[in-house]
Batch of 2 targets.
Target 1
Amino acid sequence: QSVLTQPPSASGTPGQRVTISCSGSSSNIGSNTVNWYQQLPGTAPKLLIYSNNQRPSGVPDRFSGSKSGTSASLAISGLQSEDEADYYCAAWDDSLNVLFGGGTKLTVL
Amino acid sequence: QVQLQESGPGLVKPSQTLSLTCTVSGGSISSGGYYWSWIRQHPGKGLEWIGYIYYSGSTYYNPSLKSRVTISVDTSKNQFSLKLSSVTAADTAVYYCARGSYYYDSSGYYTVLFDYWGQGTLVTVSS
């Protein structure tokens, strides 16, 4: 069971805005930054958001991240069919470990 | 463009040692600044961080796997490797190597991110 808690699934229609939550504790999200990864079917994860809200070069600005207290969120606006993927949050934990969320499967209806 | 490629046996017998190598191209491990990491994903499950190595040879491992994990580096070949001993079926997973950055951001929060990943290799533990 992951220490970072994500909903197992989320869905939306093309053009919609969807959000995915990630809940942690004071020892991880509360005191360190959150990153988000996108994993398309059959591929390796890809860094989507780092340091809570920063986008690596090449990531569309449709993707945004935020953090408040011990929770974080990933928002995807203008949902597209190619956004259908698994999304994982991750953070350093003060127990000296990297933690990943259990993942959220996003379906574009 | 940095690229990483995992290699090694796809089948390991229970109680034996799993050995994988990651070959890095498009960048030198010796240049420093990055922590070369292993991450695994059990079938249909989430991601689990295994550990990292710096070019100098310093390592850090997931506390839950520490007793069984060894990560080493060969800078002359621009490779780093993973050994996981005493494997069981629970170690069956896709194993990824990745380039990691571990640092304090401008606000003083610790950031760990993986910006380049290998394609992953499935290792099955079975007799």
Target 2
Amino acid sequence: DGGITQSPKYLFRKEGQNVTLSCEQNLNHDAMYWYRQDPGQGLRLIYYSQIVNDFQKGDIAEGYSVSREKKESFPLTVTSAQKNPTAFYLCASTQPGGTGLGETEAFFGQGTRLTVV
Amino acid sequence: QKEVEQDPGPLSVPEGAIVSLNCTYSNSAFQYFMWYRQYSRKGPELLMYTYSSGNKEDGRFTAQVDKSSKYISLFIRDSQPSDSATYLCATGTSYGKLTFGQGTILTVHP
């Protein structure tokens, strides 16, 4: 089955610690995204990548870093510089460049809930 | 001002009611309009998609877009308890980057 796999489902971080969230897709999509979801805030874009070895900052990139070495993988690192990292993190992918729904429908993973302890 | 505004609710209705969910957006460059449904502790799933102004119907769901007033609506007829979820409106441009509203929490009680 094609889809997006995020791991782990739950993650606990100590103060001052970096943690990495995994996102893997087998949809052969070029574009991948990381969103953060907080109650009452909707989804806010952290980083996105439209092609391998290239990525762009989203609206709230401070304290986060990403890499895109392979088409199917887009890991997100939450660094110690992110002062309020407790949130639900969602990874998504799209296949831009076509027309109509195919270029904009985002497929989401099941999310990683990160908690600072 | 956020590019997409959505009333977060929460909204509670009895089973069988008609539900109206709404968003406004500010960027005229947005070309695509979507509604995602998100169940608790899950990732969002695409529910409805429209490209132009007007109505689009799919079963009990109707999506409505008015580009002149930058207004997006989702109507749910004969609402069911299984419709209880968070509904997120989203807008996009041709290169695939989406902008989401805050999401509206809907509860349909038997």
